[in-house]
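Annotated sample (chain length 134).
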Amino acid sequence: MIKNERQYRITRAQAARFSQTLDGLRKRPSSPEGVHPRIARAQEEAVASQLADLQEELREYEQVKAGGFCLEQLDVVSDLSILLIRARIARGLSQRELARRAGLKEQQIQRYEATDYESASLSRIKEVVAALAS
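Output written by the structure step:
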């Protein structure tokens, strides 16, 4: 994900280089001397894949910068603790089982849920989400 203008400029420049490289690969003879056709095709596909990834990142950044982000999506953050508790219950997990999956003590999950995850760090919340998803 592109997070600022500097990264945007760098990504745009990388995409331009990948595009030029891809053009060069496509213009070369179908069987470059000393290169097996499968290798040549793999090179082209790899560059094309990288270029597509960069172009998608650029498109996403441009869309968000142009106002293509709904601030109401942030409401999920305020509901996160409820969503985590509901997800645990829906998965049929006890606090003990969730703690085991997340590599925590049961008491820690109990404290998090009692305080609506207010004391949990973002990295810890990600660990709990990963444990719920597994």
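Annotation: Residues 37-65 form the longest helix (29 residues).
Annotation: The two ends are 25 Å apart (CA to CA).
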